[in-house]
Amino acid sequence: KQEVTQIPAALSVPEGENLVLNCSFTDSAIYNLQWFRQDPGKGLTSLLLIQSSQREQTSGRLNASLDKSSGRSTLYIAASQPGDSATYLCAVGGNTGFQKLVFGTGTRLLVSP
Amino acid sequence: GAVVSQHPSRVICKSGTSVKIECRSLDFQATTMFWYRQFPKQSLMLMATSNEGSKATYEQGVEKDKFLINHASLTLSTLTVTSAHPEDSSFYICSARSRSGTSGGTWETQYFGPGTRLLVL
What we know:
A: 113 residues; 5-stranded antiparallel sheet; B: 53% strand
């Protein structure tokens, strides 16, 4: 059974810092990995999707990497801003059947002005 | 990008009543829809997967008779919480996966709705 863990659980940084969020998963037989952002009481916003054959994806100040063999992904946020404050979730897409997503435990990020 | 809506966004009901939540894909046809539940400060947990025209597949530990799912068309799935109790209070989120090319994205991408907050008194 796939298990997805995110470290740290919470992170507080001053504005402008570069930061790294970590995601690890136990079963490397994945189809893809996705990073989401969730604001309090809201739904999910997809940030980046990495296919299992890819090593990284970039969008603006965000860069996500994937090391499938070691079961790890990182989300790098450059020059953080207060508007980046949210919970970040990684989700792993299974390789069989409906390719269901298994979500990580999330990292709550607070960027202070 | 593809849009998924949920209705209602928030509902409060009395214990013992049933509540229906709708999930719609607005600009694409969704062959598969997923229903998740999220308790406060916790991650999303998949409840069930529904395919248009067939019975839903429930995850282990989810009562199919309590959480009725209907996926009657390629743009609509409904989740009915029957005889709701306070412990069913949660944030329910649906997602929809499009057919190849229909929404402009890859077919395996799930598009998420904004969620429905259920409070059972």
